[in-house]
Design a protein that fits this description.
Shape: elongated
Helix content: 55-70%
Number of strands: 0
Largest sheet: none
Order of helices and strands: HHHHHH
Length: 168
């Protein structure tokens, strides 16, 4: 039962979706695919940081940057080993992919005016994987056919990569 094929004589797919909804679904699927693959690079960075150690294959080389992110994320740093801090930052970063509540941490880096727009338009991304999963759910046959809702989720999904995965 798909993909939808529409013609002038049959302007809607089997699920009732018209050309605008079909295009919206396709656009959202491409966005989800790009966000999933691109943001996964950031996930690997977090895994690498988590595996860093003084005597291992991976080392912390930019302690200033690590401490800056730890401070930004309210992770204690005083009198702590740099690798303990690195592991906690890595865990917090990994939670940005699948955390169950709230919005992405790096959104606070955007100008307040922009954050307000994202909030008002309901496109502020939550967890990266949640936005990709939601996108795939919405594009499944019979779930969403409103082009506006599909494009809105495309924006949210793209932002989840840009302000989540890319920032990692």
């Amino acid at each position: 039962m798909g993909p939808c094929r529409i013609t002038p004589r049959a302007p809607k797919g089997i699920c009732g979706c018209d050309i605008h909804g079909i295009v919206g679904r396709n656009y959202l699927r491409f966005t989800a695919g790009g966000s999933a693959t691109h943001s996964d690079h950031g996930r690997e960075i977090c895994h690498t940081l988590y595996n860093a150690s003084a005597d291992g294959n991976y080392h912390v080389t930019d302690t200033e940057k690590l401490l800056k992110i730890a401070k930004e994320w309210d992770i204690p740093t005083e009198d702590r080993d740099i690798y303990d801090i690195a592991h906690e930052v890595a865990e917090a970063g990994l939670m940005e992919y699948g955390k169950p509540f709230g919005y992405q941490r790096f959104l606070k880096r955007a100008p307040e005016r922009r954050q307000k727009i994202w909030e008002e338009q309901e496109i502020a991304p939550r967890a990266i994987d949640r936005e990709v999963s939601r996108a795939l759910h919405m594009t499944h046959m019979g779930c969403s056919s409103l082009a506006e809702a599909l494009v809105k989720q495309s924006l949210r999904c793209g932002l989840s990569d840009g302000w989540g995965g890319s920032m990692m």
